[in-house]
Inverse folding.
């Protein structure tokens, strides 16, 4: 699943793929926003870990779980 995270006062966004379901990912973000935590931790398919300050989250876009097609479409 493709994830895009916008950071306040930054022209770039964080873009990665994760094996989590959309519901699991939404719960992680919602829990971080509702609690007093300063950072939210994300991990991608390759094992990289992203720590993002909760106060700097502008938006979180959760993509579809459909895999990309390979080959030609007739």
């Amino acid at each position: 699943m493709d994830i895009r995270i916008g950071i306040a006062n930054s022209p770039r966004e964080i873009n990665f793929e994760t094996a989590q379901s959309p519901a699991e990912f939404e719960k992680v973000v919602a829990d971080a926003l509702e609690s007093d935590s300063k950072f939210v931790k994300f991990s991608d398919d390759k094992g990289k870990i992203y720590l993002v300050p909760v106060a700097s989250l502008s938006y979180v876009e959760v993509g579809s779980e459909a895999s990309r097609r390979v080959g030609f479409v007739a």
